[in-house]
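ok so I'm stuck.
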Amino acid sequence: MKLNIYYSLALLVFLSCTPDGKKEKAVLSEKVGHKVPVKKKFDLFNITFKETLKDAGLNVKEDRQSAETLEGYGTFVSSSPYILIFDHQSLYGKNATDQNQLVMHYSLNEKVISAIELHMYTSDALKKVDSVLINKFGEPGFTDSYSKHPGLAIDKNGTMMDGPRADITYQVWKNTKTGISYHLLRNMGSHGLRFAELTVINDKGSDADSWIRFKNYDKYPKKFN
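replied:
not stuck anymore, here's the structure
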């Protein structure tokens, strides 16, 4: 069954403003595409970006191709426990409204994976990813944190009040041996995690700069430790 999947509104707007309040372009494509069944386990931490969708266990059919992303690639989505694996750690799970999921960008001609995004809504998944990255690569080479205040809100009694503040942290780890970079962006509210996103990019790939611009990460002046 074909299902059109849309990013949550929060994922479309949480980076729509820079720390100084200047409006930026939306960083995520509105249409993600179609959910695709996964037939075998695939550990995302081991990705080399030489793999095809078939290597990842995705059953690719013409009638299941998604809308293209901003970079001209196809996009597939999966919440399968067989593919939500990061260094042998399961990231499968969901909160009250949202389910952790993988977004895989691939070249339309050869079906080669070009970039991946992990959307996480559970603190458990975020902790696992954070732990793996620190254990493998040490502390992040770059960190930027800021708070966003959406303005006024109205409580259940109709009283004007300050809207909920969001604390946003962006961190980058690099695997110097493979040239693969890990961009972890987390959005925290007063009650804990709202959502987090890990984007994995091959910095040696010809399209690396395009993915950085697509994700709006180029607005951060990176000075790595």
